[in-house]
Amino acid sequence: MVMEDLTNVDRNRKYISDGLQAVKMTFVQDINEMNTAPRYSPDMVYQHFGEEETIYGYADLEVTIHHSAQTLYSYINICYSSKAKNDNGLEADDIEDKLVHIDVRPNVLVTEKGAFNQKLISQKNFQPYGEMVHKFQSKGKNFEVYRVTEQSEDFNLFLERIQTLGMFFIECCSLTDNTEENWLHYFIYERCDTGEGDGSTIAKVAGFATLYKFYNYFEKVRPRIAQMLLLPQYRKSGIGAQFMESFLRDLRATPEVFDVTVESPGDQFTFLRDYVDCINCMNLPEFSSENLKNGFSDKMRMAALDKLKISKAQSRRVYEILRFRQTNKKDKEDLKAQRIDVKRRLYAPMKRSERDWKRLNLALTQEELRQAACGEMDEETKFSTLTQMYDRLMESYQKTIDRIEAHPKIF
Fold it and tell me: 20 to 30 Å CA-CA from 165: which of 53, 133, 326, 337?
């Protein structure tokens, strides 16, 4: 009986695939590129296949999601050597059903290869939505950034397709209701020559950002970045920072914008945002080396807010990164002063009453608040906790500093 059970376990195991390994994506312009186009892995598939991110029912599974490079329609190709029988109530996953939700399937998924080819042919006439707010060159490629505020049916369907794609790369990504007028979108495209010799060009989608404009006092708004995605073929090249800086410049030039905030940022987004904000603040006299040494000030906070639309909490974080960057690590006194300055901020929640926590939300990140919720700790435990928090924070700051040293300019 035991041997039979083990045999069944081994038999079932070969039909369990790691979704992150099995699923690949392409972005193609022509039907002939489907076999040769670079394959990219998603960052996550838990929204599709559950927390374990596994696919059941297929041996040697390969799932390729082909996307039209301009319009982002999808065609799925599934290959496997054998399929599990429906034993013991276990059925093979319906992969297409799990990859594309039924509500958006008619808009996103093309089930016939011939129909997908027609999408590829017709996408040559695609034009970006909205108004171009910036363009730049990067490593020999041309990019354009567009602001979109419209609510047309065509754009809403296009947005639905790219947000469906975003679920493979953005934590807790969801579809937004674009009929709500407070949504604001930015898209980045690579402008490419068609190769037809007549000077004609096409625009390939490179990424997008979605923001929600919250109302602030005195007829101001506080745009909050809810989603940002750079497609995998454009990553690790500096384009993400250039895209962020492009749409931030547009927001800074908008009089009604008070500041720009972020909703539940992941580690990679935080790293990108820190880099962009640090590069910009380094050009402000309020963040000079001498001023950094004297500690965070209202002048720094107001300069970051007025000139760069950076919130108070983020300007404090930028100050700490830049001060750590200029701190002489071999000078014990210099390093001690920097360490005390940071720990003083981290220690604040440990000695405050409950009525102060709302105010402290402005000074600490959510992770720091969770780690610092230890008002009942004894002094020894508090000291140990502070040291761990400080060390982890400096480790993350150093990653930003390393990027600043390697790339002191965004453009």
Answer: 133
Q: What does the pLDDT average to over 91-109?
A: 95
Q: How far apart are CA 322 and CA 289, in angstroms?
A: 9
Describe the strand order of the beta sheet including 62-68 as a list of residue ranges. Answer: 23-28, 62-68, 74-79
Cβ pair 334, 344 in contact under 8 A: no
Task: Please give the angle made by the CA atoms of 41, 45 and 48, to the nearest 5 degrees.
Answer: 135
41 within 8 A of 23, measured Cβ to Cβ: yes
Confidence of residue 6 (pLDDT cuts 50, 70, 90): very low
Q: Which two tokens stand for residue 325?
A: 């960057």
Strands 220-230 and 183-193: unpaired
CATH superfamily of 127-264: Gcn5-related N-acetyltransferase (GNAT) (3.40.630.30)
Which CATH architecture describes the domain 2-124? Alpha-Beta Complex (3.90)
Sequence letter at residue 28 = V
**Closest among 187, 153, 186, 160 to 175, alpha carbons compared:** 160
Question: Rounded CA gap, 214 and 22, in Å?
Answer: 40
Per the model's pLDDT, the better-predicted residue between 183 and 360 turns out to be 183
- Give tens-digit pLDDT for 169-226: 999 899 998 888 899 999 999 999 988 888 899 999 999 999 999 998 888 999 999 9
3-state secondary structure of 254: coil
Nearest to 133 by CA among 143, 123, 141: 143
Q: Which residue's entry shows tokens 């009986």? A: 1
Residues in the chain: 411
**Using CB atoms within 10 A of its CB, is residue 44 exposed (0-12), middle (13-18) or buried (19+)?**
middle
- The per-residue b/e assignment along 333-368, b for 16 or more CB within 10 angstroms, e otherwise, is eeeeebbebbbebbbebbeeeeeeeeeeeebbeeeb
Q: For the chain, what are the domain ranges?
A: 2-124, 127-264, 314-400
Structure tokens at 204: 């390939």
